[in-house]
Amino acid sequence: MAKLILSMDGLVLKELPLAKERTTIGRKPHNDIQIDNLAISGEHAVIVTILNDSFLEDMNSTNGTYVNGQPIKKHFLQNNDVVELGKYRLKYINETPTVAQSPDFEKTMVLRPDMMRKAPTDAPPAPAPARSQTDTQTGFRPGQSMPAGSSLGGSGLPPPPPPLAPPPPAASANQVGAIQILNGANAGRELELTKTLTTLGKPGLQVAVITRRPQGYFITHVEGANMPIVNGRQLDAQAHPLEDHDVIEIAGVKMEFFIKR
After folding, report:
1. Strand partners, 170
2. If you placed Cys at 92, which of 11, 52, 81, 100 could pair as Cys (CB 3.0 to 4.6 Å)?
3. 173 phi and psi angles, rounded to 5 deg
């Protein structure tokens, strides 16, 4: 797990594990990392941690946020980076190889045409799924009434319904998610989410990431004043699980998430 080492004037004050997906830094008491100093803004900066990666964003602080001596607005943290907030230093320690260092990482995608393929318009319809062997002989689902005059035969009682199976997960190891753009110049284009982490949006305006995990796909806000919108509802700062046919809106672009069969 990544961590921060807080120090001032070379004196280590404490170690702070980045155990949350969103860690806020500032002078006000509600921050995850509170630094009670007038040089620190009430809500100074935020660190978004996804898998093994951490993104630092300055929250329009008065005195700014610096990394290794350089002012930043948004910065992808790397092992041994030093975040400077006034007289305080936060050294970022992450000895685990990050997703960005592996071939299974895809850099920021701004929904450019060359990143997506056009959705086919003349594809043949998908074949109807085969009837499950566990269907009742009458072909009715459990709890569904039977039309008058139908005969059950035998004892006059329908066969017992099969036990209800749990709903399938949003994405399994052999299923791949994708998004299709619904509006704008790229409408109709499709992007498969085969990477562990896919970043979408417009840097400087609004950015979110979609992560592929064993439990399915999740969307998390990274940058910008506005949170992503899913099915007409604005998300909060926490990771949100995506379900088949969810409609996402990021930086004015609407897209549909779906699981490829």
Report:
1. none
2. 81
3. -60, -30
